[in-house]
Amino acid sequence: MKGGILLLVMVSLFAVGGCKKPAEGTTYVPPPTPTVVKKGKMRIANNGYNALNVYVNGIFEKRVPGGTYIMKEVVPGSYSIKGVQAEGYYDKPLTVGTTVTVVSEGLVLVNF
User: Fold this and answer.
1) How many CA atoms lie less than 13 Å away from 82 in the CB half-sphere?
2) Is residue 112 within 8 Å of 44, Cβ to Cβ?
3) Which residue among 28, 70, 80, 98 is least crowded, i.e. fewest CB within 10 A of its CB?
4) How far apart are the C-alpha atoms of 74 and 108, rounded to whole Å?
C-alpha cells in the first residue's frame, strides 16, 4: 500500500514539475514550416534526323535520337541547354544552344 501511494505521489510530481513553462514576458514562437518548392518541366525536342547529346548547365543529360524528345523535371530557375550532334557529321558536329527560364509548375519547350 505504501508503495502504491509513493508511486502515485511520484507520478503527480512528475506531471506537475515535468512541463516547462515559458519565462515571464516571453511568447511562444512555433518553428517555421518548411517551404515546398513546386518543380517545373522542360521538354527538349530534337527535330532533326541525327542524334544529339543534350547538356543542361554543362552536365550531360541524355542522347536524344532524331525526331524524339525528353522531359526533365527541374526546380524553378534559369538553365543553359546545349545540343551537340552525336552522329552524321563529316568534320565538326553541329552545336546548338539556348538559355531558358523555368517557373514553378510551368512547362518550357526547347526545340532543336
Assistant:
1) 11
2) yes
3) 28
4) 11
